[in-house]
From TrEMBL:
The keyword Cytoplasm does not apply. This is 3'-phosphate/5'-hydroxy nucleic acid ligase. GO terms for biological process: RNA processing. Its EC number is 6.5.1.8. It catalyses: a 3'-end 3'-phospho-ribonucleotide-RNA + a 5'-end dephospho-ribonucleoside-RNA + GTP = a ribonucleotidyl-ribonucleotide-RNA + GMP + diphosphate. Its cofactor is Mn(2+). Mn(2+) binds at residue 248.
DNA sequence: ATGTAC
C-alpha cells in the first residue's frame, strides 16, 4: 500500500440486491482498492464479498449502477461508476431491474467533469450555463469543459463552448457548420481608398458575390487544383465561394493598431472572411445524428467515417473562404493577376474540432521557446469539440498561433489577439487551447427582431454614423435587425475577459470599413 | 448554421 493511497479517504457506497432492492447495506471501499476487476485487490471482489456476507447472495455475478442501469464490466466502468453515495445493485445473473431515471445521463457520463468559465460573472447567461453543465456532466467521456466569454444558449447545446472528450466523439457539439473559421487576406488597397465616404464606393463595387461561382466545371477544378480534393458532389459544391447566413460575413478592414512582428502591419487594408462548409457540413451532421444520436464511440466504424468526413468538410470550408476572398478581390482589384490565395500571410485558421493529446503538447520552436512550454507527459488521445471558439494552436504543428481575430458584430472593431499560455492557465489547458471566435449574442434573434426593427430601417446600404464607421451591405431585411451590433455582447468586454483569464493578449485592432453580409441581386441591388 | 421541417 503506498503512503499516498493510504492517506486518501475511503469511498462510501451502498450495495443492494438487484432482485430485492430493499435488501441493502453500506460499504466503505479503501482508496487503494483497484478499479481493475481482474486485480486480486479489486473493488469488484470487495463488493462481491460484502454482498455474500451482508446481503446473503450465493453467487454474485453482475453489478449495475442503481437508477442508471449501467453495468460495471471493464476497468473504465469501475473507475467511473464507483464514487461516494452511489448505489450498486448486485445481480446473480439477471438483468437490471428498475426504472432508468435521468435517461439523459449517459452511463459513461462523467459527473465530475471540470468546467472552466472565462466570462465575468455579470455576463453569464443562466440558460447557457445550465446547458454547459448539463452537457459536461451527461455526455459520455467528457474530461474538460470551457465556457468562453461569448457563451450563449443554443438549441440544445451551448455556443461559445469547448468540450474535451476521451474515447467518444459528439458531432452535435461541433454543429453543422463544420470547419467554420476566419481568415485575414491582404489587399493592395491603401487606407485612403476605403476611408470616409470612399467606403460607399467600395461597397458599391462588391457585386456578383451571391449565387454560384462560374460553372460546375470551374468549381470542380478549383477544389481539385487548388485544394487537392475532389468535391463534395455538385449538390454542395454549387455553393463553394458563397458566404452564407448567420454570423458569416466578409469585411474590409483597416489595421488601426498592431504590435510589430505579428503578421499584420499598421495602416494596411485587409479582408476578413468568416464562413464555413455551408450545406456540406450540415449534411454530415444530419447523417450522424439520425434518430437523436449524439455520441459515437471512437473505435466504431461510424466514428471513423465521421472523422474522415469532418476533415474533408474542414478542407472544403477553407477552400470556400479562399474562393470568397478571390471573388471579393476580383471586385476590389480588377486587373490584378491571380491572387496566390492561401499563401497570403496573416492567415488564421479556425477548425472547430481537432484530435489531440490531452493534456495537449504545446510545441516549441527555436524562436518561440521562451513563451511556450512542453507538457512533460504525452497524454492520451482526446477530441476537442469547439463551437463558437477557435483553436490557439496550429492544428498541424501544435505551435501557438501568433494572432487570432476577435470580430465584433458588424461595424464594431475586430480585436487582434495573441493567444497566451501562462502557468496560471495550466499553459492554455484551462481554456482548452481555444479562444472565443466572436462577441456572441446577448439578445435572442426573436428579441432583436422585435426591439431593433423600430430603430433601423431596412435598406441596402447602411451608412455609418460619423465619418469613420462602417458601410454595411445587408439586403436581407430581417438580418439588418437580427445582426445589429446591439444584439451582441461588446467585443471589448469579451476580449477583456480573455485577457483577464490569461488566455490572450490584445495586440491591436482593426476598423471595419465595409461589412458585407448579403445582397439581393435578383433586382439589381437597389 | 442549413438547398430546412411541419
Amino acid at each position: 500500500m503506498s503512503r499516498q493511497a493510504s492517506r486518501r479517504p475511503p469511498t462510501r457506497i451502498t450495495i443492494a440486491l438487484n432482485a430485492r432492492q430493499t435488501q441493502r447495506a453500506p460499504l466503505l471501499l479503501p482508496a487503494n482498492a483497484s478499479t481493475d476487476p481482474s486485480s486480486p485487490t479489486s473493488i469488484r471482489k470487495l463488493v462481491f464479498k460484502a454482498a455474500q456476507a451482508k446481503l446473503r447472495i450465493g453467487k454474485p455475478s453482475r453489478v449495475f449502477v442503481a437508477g442508471f442501469g449501467a453495468e460495471l464490466v471493464g476497468e473504465e466502468d469501475w473507475e467511473r461508476g464507483v464514487r461516494n453515495d452511489v448505489s450498486l445493485l448486485i445481480s446473480a445473473g439477471e438483468d437490471y431491474i428498475g426504472v432508468i431515471r435521468d435517461a439523459g445521463v449517459h452511463p459513461k457520463a462523467n459527473p465530475t467533469c471540470p468546467i472552466h468559465n472565462l466570462a465575468s460573472a455579470a455576463a453569464l447567461d443562466e440558460h447557457a450555463l445550465t446547458q454547459l453543465r448539463t452537457t459536461a456532466h451527461s455526455l459520455p467521456g467528457l474530461v474538460h469543459a470551457v465556457g468562453q466569454p461569448n457563451l450563449h444558449p443554443g438549441t440544445k447545446f451551448p455556443i461559445g463552448a469547448v468540450f474535451v472528450s476521451q474515447r467518444w466523439i459528439h458531432p452535435p457539439l461541433i454543429g453543422g457548420d463544420i470547419g467554420c473559421g476566419m481568415a485575414w487576406y491582404r489587399t493592395r488597397l491603401s487606407r485612403g481608398q476605403v476611408e470616409g465616404d470612399r467606403g460607399r464606393k467600395v461597397a458599391e463595387k462588391l457585386r456578383g458575390m451571391e449565387g454560384a461561382w462560374r460553372t460546375a466545371e470551374a468549381r470542380e477544378r478549383w477544389l481539385e487544383d487548388e485544394w487537392g480534393m475532389c468535391g463534395a458532389g455538385e449538390e454542395w459544391d454549387g455553393s463553394v465561394g458563397t458566404i452564407g447566413a448567420g454570423n458569416h460575413f466578409a469585411e474590409i478592414q483597416v489595421v488601426e493598431e498592431v504590435e510589430e512582428g505579428c503578421g499584420l502591419a499598421e495602416g494596411e487594408v485587409v479582408l476578413l472572411v468568416r464562413s464555413g462548409s455551408r450545406g456540406y457540413g450540415s449534411s454530415i451532421l444530419k447523417k450522424y445524428t439520425a434518430e437523436g444520436q449524439v455520441s459515437l464511440k471512437e473505435d466504431s466504424a461510424e466514428a471513423k467515417e465521421y472523422l474522415k468526413e469532418h476533415d474533408s468538410a474542414c478542407r472544403w470550408a477553407k477552400a470556400n473562404r479562399n474562393l470568397i476572398a478571390l471573388r471579393f478581390l476580383s471586385c476590389l482589384e480588377p486587373g490584378e493577376p491571380a491572387w496566390s490565395l492561401g499563401k497570403k500571410d496573416a492567415h488564421v485558421e479556425d477548425i472547430h474540432d481537432a484530435r489531440t493529446k490531452w493534456p495537449p503538447v504545446v510545441a516549441t520552436s527555436e524562436d518561440t521557446n521562451e513563451r511556450t512550454a512542453s507538457s512533460p507527459s504525452p497524454g492520451i488521445d482526446a477530441y476537442i469539440h469547439r463551437k463558437g471558439a477557435a483553436p490557439t494552436l496550429s492544428p498541424g504543428t501544435c505551435l501557438p498561433l501568433s494572432i487570432l481575430p476577435l470580430p465584433g458584430s458588424r461595424g464594431t472593431p475586430t480585436l487582434i489577439l495573441a493567444p497566451q499560455f501562462p502557468s496560471s492557465t495550466s499553459r492554455g489547458l484551462d481554456n482548452a487551447v481555444s479562444l472565443a471566435h466572436g462577441a456572441g449574442r446577448s439578445m435572442s434573434r426573436a428579441k432583436a427582431l422585435s426591439t431593433l426593427s423600430q430603430k433601423y430601417q431596412a435598406s441596402s446600404l447602411l451608412e455609418p454614423r460619423g465619418g469613420k464607421g462602417t458601410w454595411v451591405v445587408c439586403e436581407a431585411k430581417d438580418l439588418v435587425f437580427e445582426k445589429a451590433a446591439e444584439a451582441y455582447k461588446d467585443v471589448e468586454a469579451v476580449g477583456a475577459n480573455l485577457v483577464a483569464f490569461g488566455a490572450a493578449r490584445r495586440v491591436g485592432w482593426c476598423r471595419a470599413r465595409v461589412s458585407y453580409k448579403c445582397r439581393d441581386e435578383r433586382g439589381g441591388g437597389r
